[in-house]
Amino acid sequence: MNIVFLDFDGVMDTVAYDMYLVKNGLPECDDKGRPVFDPECIECLRIIIAETNADVVVTSDWKYIDKYEGLLQMWKDRNMPGFLTDVTPNVSKHRGDEIDLWLKECKIDCNYVIIDDLDESNFNFHQLERLIVVNPAVGLDHNAAERAISILNRPLA
Fold first, then answer.
1. pLDDT tens across 145-156, in order?
2. Closest by Cα among 55, 43, 60, 45 to 9
3. For residue 157, what pLDDT is reported?
4. What does the pLDDT average to over 127-142?
5. What is the CATH number of the domain that holds 74?
6. Is 73 helix (H, G, I), strand (E, B) or coil?
7. Is the Cβ–Cβ distance between 134 and 10 less than 8 Å?
8. φ and ψ at residue 4, rounded to 5 degrees
């Protein structure tokens, strides 16, 4: 099973797209008050999922506001690619610990990639080879998508 552990702010909701929306008088948020995702980032996620058949697990702080059911509905309403499988457990402010606990509780061998704008200190050492840190101005771009595909297409050890 392939998993993309995905942050939203800075990865899917970018500074560049927010500036574009403001400049063009377009809403920055949906009808529920959630920031609108950058279409280029959505396309890059679509490519990752098409190439790897990965599912998405949310690591974003949005999980504290919208529980899984709310995020799943947003995913469907926005016609986002792939399937939003789950959110990481709320046990720590350290993303790496939450990802480790999710993997432990999953009980299925998972190949995974982490896509986030937080730096390496927010993750555990053994996760760093699977971490892609993106620039929050542009978020998930084609270079990051290619790296994610490469990680997810590696055989499990």
1. 999 999 999 877
2. 60
3. 63
4. 97
5. 3.40.50.1000
6. helix
7. yes
8. -105, 115
Taking only the tens place, the pLDDT of each residue in 98-108 is 999 999 998 78
Candidates 136, 142, 119; CA nearest to 17 is 136
Q: What is the pTM of this model?
A: 0.95
Exposure letters 46-71 (e unless 16+ CB within 10 A, then b): ebbbebbebbbbbbbebbeebeeeeb
DSSP, collapsed to helix, strand or coil, labels residue 113 as: strand
**Residue 157 belongs to some domain of the structure:** no
Retrieve residue 114's tokens: 């982490």
Residue 56 lies in a domain: yes
C-alpha dihedral sign at 76, 9, 15, 135 = negative
Backbone φ, ψ for residue 126 (5° rounding): -70, -10
Task: Point out which residues pair with 4 in neighbouring strands.
Answer: 56, 113
| Residue 37 and residue 12 in contact, taking contact as beta carbons nearer than 8 Å | yes
The 10 Å Cβ neighbour count of residue 134 is 23
Q: Are 91 and 105 in contact (CB under 8 A)?
A: no
Look up the domain containing 111 and give its range: 2-152
